[in-house]
Amino acid sequence: xxxIRYMHLDVFAASPGGGNHLGVVTDAAGWSDTQMQxxxxxxxLVETTFLLPPSDPKASYRVRIFTPQKEIAFxxxxxxxxxxxxxxxxxxxxxxxxxxxECGAGVLPIRVEGSGPxxxxxxxxPEARVVKTGLHAHPLLASTLNGxxxxxxxxxxxxxxxxxxxxxxxxxxxxxxWQPDHSAIGALAVxxxxxxxxxxxxxxxxxxxxxxxxxxxxxxxxxxxxxxxANGLIAAYLLHAEPNGPLARGYSVSQGREMGHxxxxxxxxxxxxxxxxxxxxxxxxxxxxxxxx
Length: 293
Hints:
Layout: E1 4-11, E2 20-25, H1 33-43, E3 48-52, E4 61-66, E5 71-72, H2 76-89, E6 98-103, E7 106-113, E8 120-124, E9 129-133, H3 141-144, E10 156-160, E11 162-168, H4 172-177, H5 182-192, E12 197-202, E13 210-215, H6 228-241, E14 250-255, E15 263-270, E16 273-278, E17 280-288
Parallel strand pairs: 2-3, 4-6, 11-12, 13-14
Antiparallel strand pairs: 1-2, 1-17, 3-4, 4-5, 6-7, 7-8, 8-16, 9-10, 10-11, 12-13, 14-15, 15-16
């Protein structure tokens, strides 16, 4: 197999090394499904993406997203990071400030704001719906939330690209200090066919208005440092529950500090459309030699 440009990225980072890891194979046109899965298993990153020519004439490029165990249709930080790689490699150029990403969830727009080190990429979140709300919406939910005070909004199961349980917590300090029962979250995720639990709290900090912690036990991850899709669902729930509230037009999110990261995500909301994004840093830009027949 010919040498291929490979990038290791730091997605949604507020500071270097603060975001979520992503590996991007920038030219996977000759790769089989088996080769992609084997390489994603070898990297052992939460997700590895593979860039391909688009099959849809509307799309700027096509991306396939793999965890170490399987291919998934859509995820937030792999989409934003892949768009960053596309721009860095000159594989496509934005039109009217938009890239169009083809993935398993369809053709999704990614907005390009600025250029160079200050560039931000924001992904339009898939349409979401609130499936059910309330502490007793599932028999396992109340016990899963033991040890944390709840906030204004009731817990909710929200579906849109991915399915998450969302829970507003009473304050930032208690959410950051919370030590959840991960086995309970995993049991809830399996029983409800969801990713797991995403907890959030409002903040008065000058740099962010929401703190988020995401526990995707349903896919075998203890805690995620920066969650694009989950944050899109939180924004959808806030817009649904508080359409005239202080966060209904957008806000900034701090995530990952409890696990040694420092992510900053931007939620922009306009005319009911939600965009989630932030900055991406290139950490490694090199050549991949993967001789897998």
